[in-house]
Amino acid sequence: MTTATQPLLDYTALAAHSSGLAFLDSRGVTGEITYADLDTRARTAAAALHERGLRPGDRAVLPMPSSPDYFTVLAACLLAGVAPCTVVIPSNPQDVQSAGMRQFAAVLSVVRPAAVIAADEDTAKALAQVPGPLYLHPDDLRHAPPESFQPAIPGPDTVHHIQLTSGSTTAPKAATLTYAQVSANVNGLRTAFQLTPGHDRICNWLPLHHDMGFVVALTALHSGTPLDSMSPMGFLRDPLSWLRHISQRGATITSGPPFGYRTAVERYRRTPAQDLDLSRLRQAHVGAEPIPYSVLVDFRDTFAAHGLATDTLMPCYGMAETVLGATMSLKPYPATEHSWGRVKAVRLDREALHHHNTITPAHDDRPDITVVACGQPVGGLTAEIRHPDGTRCGDNEIGEIHLHGDSVMAGYLKPDGRPTPVPERTHATGDLGFHRDGDLYIVGRLKEMIVVRGRNLPPYDVEQTIETLPAVGAGNSAVFSHADNDGEHVIAVIETRTPADQAAALRLEIATLVRQSFGFTPREIILVRRGQIPRTTSGKRQRAQLRRQYLTGGLT
Fold first, then answer.
1. How high is the pLDDT of residue 224?
2. Would the CA dihedral through 180, 231, 487, 447 be positive or negative?
């Protein structure tokens, strides 16, 4: 049993907040709801869930976009003691064999929900091709007398929500997060955000199936801070609309991966917006994927003329396994060549870092990489760097990052529906990093997961999709990522017998398939002869060795 060190989140207090939520697309407001109205609707929906047979301890999967209905269903689940799991909406739910529906089926096999609550009746019917849970939609939850229902009373070990940590179509990992853990992290974020009632407003465009989008929204609900929830598609259609909304609505807090900040700068350079006022924005969190120093510099320099303060950008590090935030760059640094505001970086020798795991200052005649500090722990956590034998690393020694403390998850769900216990409340992240002057720096990963726009993807998912092409075939691809000063890039290596005059067409076919299936295009698609992908004696692809060959010019 857990002893909570922070007050548990209380969703019966929503009506006490005087503000509310607004929903935005690239053009403007599409809907609004006050916290008081959300409370009324959520209590009715919670009573309807109870009438439908859901009970405290059950789980519900929510394939829904950001909307008043989504937040109503979310709050209803929490009031009813039902643990929600927000997931990606399959892009083609009518086709049960599509990649989206295969991923959805994999989610259900892991989460084992009592109910799936979709955005509308048609989507619920399409998703119901995957049998098992009860399929509902918001109209099913509008007509139950709230007085017939009493909210569940959570304890520290009550499961608050389930968060998926990868996009796998085979066996996604599902982190189980209790009230004690979520409360510790959300209260830590409230402190880090320095939220002031009546002054602050949060603007968020990240999808709510993403841990950053979800927990930032929880922080708004818990604190009663006004939340502007922008659709991810609205951001992608017009990245500058994110900043226009911040300007026009006076948002003070926002968050996003480096991809978002880079995309906004690129759009501004093509089509400058002269009417932006970012002077009220005081925290812009940057995390969820490796942070290129150049992205921070470009965003600062591009929008300084529009009132962006030098201490607004805040590099962060975190993951679903710690609810969200693990470290944040909270304090200002002295201005130096690579430090300003809350941004601090070190310029290192790239070969020494990536091939010898050593911290060596950069020399002008050798390839370099600039690594950004991700700050200090938040949410009742401590961060240790450990050698492979488990001993602690000293400053400037690279090892695996281990996070310990109040926000660490209960564990990943097992097939029997219970979480795998986390030994000693410590999560071995699989990320490589080092400490310097109290700050955490991230330099790589032990695991082979690739990170694209803040989304974790197992390389084998991408490989399996590529290998459906007749010109490739099963087992003839390998996908890996690498980081440089411009960010993280995905490389696909393909063994094929395709003639040279058809190589360009095959690369285009692969790029199109990956973009349609996963929403990104590999940085490079390298075609090689059969037998050139290194493998173990048992035939497993050695992606790390392939990455080394690529970085040293040995891949032809």
1. 94
2. positive
Asked if residue 543 lies in contact with residue 478, where contact means CB atoms within 8 angstroms, the answer is yes
The larger pLDDT score, comparing residue 493 to residue 144, is at 493
Q: Which of 355, 374, 360, 433 is nearest to 398 (CA)?
A: 433
Q: Lowest mean pLDDT of 325-334, 499-508, 527-536, name the range.
A: 527-536
What CA–CA distance (Å, rounded) separates 263 from 246?
Answer: 16
Is-contact 2 156, C-beta < 8 A?
A: yes
Q: With 0-12 CB in 10 A as exposed, 13-18 as middle and 19+ as buried, what is 482?
A: middle
Task: Give the whole-angstrom CA distance, residue 182 versus residue 281.
Answer: 26
Where residue 541 falls among pLDDT bands split at 50, 70, 90? confident
> Most confidently modeled of 62-66, 427-431, 483-487?
62-66
d(CA 37, CA 278): 30
* CB atoms near residue 540 (< 10 Å): 9
Sheet holding 524-528, edge to edge: 477-484, 487-495, 524-528
What does pLDDT average to over the chain? 91
- 11 φ, ψ (degrees, to nearest 5): -85, 0
Q: If you ran DSSP here, which 8-state letter would residue 437 be given?
A: T
H-type helices in 112-210, by residue range?
121-127, 179-193
What is the model's pLDDT at position 537?
Answer: 58
This model's pTM is above 0.90: no
What's the CA gap between 484 and 102, in Å, rounded?
33
Give the tokens for residue 520: 């990104």
The answer to whether the CB of 213 falls within 8 A of the CB of 8 is no
* Sign of the CA dihedral with 246 first, then 252, 256, and 259 last: positive
Cβ proximity of 409 and 389 under 8 Å: no
Q: Tell me the mean pLDDT in the region 309-320.
A: 96
- Among 285, 282, 313, smallest CA distance to 300 is for 313
The full DSSP string for 425-436 is GEEEEEEEEEEE
Is the domain 327-403+425-445 a CATH 2.30.38 member? yes
291 in Cβ contact with 374 (< 8 Å):
yes
Q: Are 48 and 82 in contact (CB under 8 A)?
A: no
Ordered by start, the domain boundaries in the chain are 327-403+425-445, 458-551
The greatest distance separating any two alpha carbons of the chain, rounded to the nearest whole angstrom, comes to 74
Residue 161: phi and psi, rounded to 5, are -155, 165
Q: How far apart are CA 44 and CA 147, in angstroms?
A: 8
Nearest to 439 by CA among 323, 314, 281: 314
Same fold, 327-403+425-445 and 458-551: no
Q: Encoding tokens for residue 354?
A: 């990536």
DSSP annotation of 522 reads -
Please name the fold of domain 458-551. GMP Synthetase; Chain A, domain 3 (3.30.300)
Q: What tokens does 157 get?
A: 């070990």
Helices (H) and strands (E) in the chain, counts: 14, 28
State the Cα–Cα distance between residues 212 and 163, nearest whole angstrom: 11
The string of DSSP codes covering 96-110 is TTSHHHHHHHHHHHH
Answer whether 327's CB lies under 8 Å from 378's CB: yes
